[in-house]
Amino acid sequence: MMELTREKNKLESWMSVKITGISLPVYLILLLVLILALSVDKLPHNILGALAVLVLLGNLFHFLGTKIPIVKTYLGGGAVFCIFASAAIATFHILPDSAVDLTKDFVNHMGFLDFYIAALITGSILGMNRDLLVKAAVRFIPVALLSMVSCFFAVGLVGMLLGNGFKDSVMYVAFPAMAGGIGAGVVPLSSIYAGSLHTSSAAVISRLIPASALCNVLAIIFAAMTSKIGENFPKQNGHGILMKIDVDLNQPAPKLDIAKMGVGLALSIAFFLSGSILNYFVPKVHAYAFMIIVVFICKAFNFIPSYYQESAVMFNQLIVKNLTAAVLAAIGIALLNLNVLAQALTWQFVVLCVVSVTVISVAAGLFGKLFGLYPVESMITAGMCNNSMGGTGNVAVLSASNRMELIAFAQMGNRLGGAIILILSGILIQLFMI
């Protein structure tokens, strides 16, 4: 009788497990449907097929990452495990090539990440306390820039000690790590190098991507560890708030309104388009940077009525709650090739990447403290996010540290810092060639 009771309890416990609100038996049925569609090559090559892969696999991997010992505690939990598990099934062809190609197309050409980041930026800025936003931004920007300067010299000097040379260390580790990702950073950086070195961009980019990728990976893991360790230092930890301010930040959540979510969608699209329009006139400044500026101005000067601000926040919450795991899976499948990463792993290269992420993070914490920011938040946003792969890297870093509400500051430092790196690289490459 007792044995029967134990078995019944085990069954009830198994049945009570939920992955993103779906009971485990039902989730397994959904996965089976996906596997059957892949096996008979009936996964549609459109948004529906891509979301089927990313939502179902992303939420599964994220759930597993929150349950695996050590991973859940010290290595970023669901966010990090989701990225690496997704990268592994793509790199080692466990996931069919057709699904991998679809995901890459969805990420690189259909604007999935733009959709997610637009909702994130709009909702996070408009949902922020106005006084906090203005006061924190003034302090955050110099902290981010000073941290990048520290990283530049540290990587160069350690490179000299390792026999790698100052020039090669900053050109092929520090700069690609801080350039702001692949599309807006490594690609134009490779063109700048190619022009001065009289070679092709393709020959240069293969030396730049590994540093961007490995520093991004280290930044994600370091962010998770910093968040965990930061729990032991309450005075240094803002728990997602960049600086202390004497106002009540615990505003009541707006009442759920389906229509408002649609308004928030329209608002996010409009702000993203405004950034794209300004980017058309000034191509060297990324559309995300312009979008942040426009939303920032609208919030700082109270141009947006509270109804629309609440709508943007509500849509932001809808997207973050339901699509973050899918975005992390997309990063792993479409942007992180484990073979490319493994080929570059000489011990000198690994040491320089560790130095890059460590120094920029520690410097950000120290300068952040000096400028009145919480060190934990400053280390993550002004430090680790500036060694990540742009918008997608920021999402992964902030997700791993449970600080997604800081996306606006992460993007601010990433885009501004990346633009400065591109300008500086064009000057320094000429000096290095002399």
Automatic annotation (TrEMBL):
Q: Could you name the domain of life of the organism this protein comes from?
A: Bacteria
* Localization in the cell: Cell membrane
Q: Which GO terms describe its cellular component?
A: plasma membrane
Q: Which residues cross the membrane?
A: 21-40, 46-65, 74-95, 107-128, 140-163, 169-192, 204-225, 258-281, 288-308, 323-342, 349-371, 416-433
Which PANTHER family does the record cross-reference, listed alphabetically?
A: CITRATE-SODIUM SYMPORTER (PTHR40033:SF1), NA(+)-MALATE SYMPORTER (PTHR40033)
Its family? Belongs to the 2-hydroxycarboxylate transporter (2-HCT) (TC 2.A.24) family.
Q: What is this protein called?
A: CCS family citrate carrier protein
Can you name the source organism? Enterococcus cecorum DSM 20682 = ATCC 43198
